[in-house]
Amino acid sequence: MRAVRSNFVEQQQVIVEILRRLIGRRLVAVTEARHWYEGRRGGDAESLLHFWWHFEGIPPVMAHGCGEHLSLDFAEPYLSYDMAEQGETRVGSARLPDVLAAYAGQRLLDAAPIQGCTPEPSVGGVQLRFERDDLVVASVGDEWLLVRGSIPEEFGAHLTAGGWLVSQRDE
User: Fold this and answer.
1) Secondary structure of residue 164 in the 3-state scheme
2) Which domain of life, per UniProt (predicted)?
3) What is the pTM of this model?
4) CA distances (Å), origin 135, targets 81, 112, 124
């Protein structure tokens, strides 16, 4: 269990370090990778595979969800690709009414890691406080949870928000 706990601490430290670099910066754009089949895509979270936040002054931050775990890393978006009979992955700018597109142009004021509910401790997501609204991004059951505001009540047993990073600096 000690190795698992150590791995969780390392994962959380990486995410917290990245979030700290984002705080105070303006989100310039969001790039999304989405699954399309026969010229159509599913709903917002349903078709989303990966996404990249483009904050001013730093490389893009790629978000990747796997099971109940969220990872963040500095990485450039990949190119669109064809998957033959399974459809295609299209990579491009986030567009309204998709949730992530609504935050472009806003400054990130604060952030909090979210712990997922797994047998092993895991960073399951993040809650981001922008100028006009909060955003919850989490990986739940290998699906994206993208919600304006706070963690929805029905996910309260599965996701626990940690402390706000800016508030922790002031304590």
Assistant:
1) coil
2) Bacteria
3) 0.90
4) 29, 10, 14
Predicted confidence at residue 152, as pLDDT, reads 94
Is 85 in contact with 29 (CB distance < 8 Å)? no
What is the rounded CA–CA span in Å between residue 61 and residue 73? 5
Digit-coded pLDDT (tens) for 158-170: 898 889 999 655 4
Task: Reduce the DSSP state of residue 135 to 3 states and report it.
Answer: strand
Pull the structure tokens for residue 24. 């105070």
DSSP string, 27-63: EEEEEEEEEEETTEE--HHHHEEEEEEEETTS--EEE
The two structure tokens encoding residue 120: 């092993």
Residue type for position 126: V
Our count of domains for the chain comes to 1
State the chain's mean pLDDT as an integer: 91
d(CA 51, CA 39): 20
Nearest to 70 by CA among 159, 153, 164: 159
Query: Which range marks the domain in which residue 61 is found?
Result: 2-170
